[in-house]
Amino acid sequence: EVNVRCLRNKEAEGVLEHIQDFQSHIKRQADAAIKIFRSDGGAEYTDAQAEEWFRQEGIRHEVTAPDSPAG
């Protein structure tokens, strides 16, 4: 199953919190977890704090080219 959530505001501040909220929602609703998080190469997804959280949660972070439609 694939779940997608789009962010309206992609400012660096708050993005990780939105991802963490989504992870909590998935755990509550489907007893599942994010396995792969795919994003463009924008700085809001690649800061050290986000990368550390992905690592701790066992989430593979795949990065596409910045601003690409595949992101």
What would your notes on this structure say?
By secondary structure, this protein is α+β, with helices and mostly antiparallel strands. It is built from two helices and two strands. The protein has helices spanning 12-30, 48-57; strands at 36-39, 60-63. The chain has a two-stranded parallel sheet with strand order 1-2. It starts with 11 loop residues before the first helix and ends in an 8-residue tail after the last strand. The mean pLDDT is 81.
Class by helix and strand content?
Answer: alpha+beta
Extended strand count: 2
Tell me what portion of residues adopts beta-strand conformation: 5-15%
Helix content: 40-55%
Major sheet summary line = 2 strands, parallel
- Given the C-alpha coordinates, what overall shape results? globular
Rg over C-alpha atoms, rounded to the nearest angstrom: 12 Å
What average pLDDT do the residues reach?
81
Which residues sit in consecutive blocks of at least 5 with pLDDT less than 50?
Answer: none
Order of helices and strands: HEHE
Q: Cα distance, first to last residue?
A: 18 Å
Helix segment count?
Answer: 2
Strand order of the largest sheet: 1-2
Short structural description:
With 71 residues, the chain is α+β, with helices and mostly antiparallel strands.
What tags apply to this protein structure?
two-stranded parallel ribbon; 41% helix; alpha+beta; 71 residues; 2 helices; single chain; 11% strand
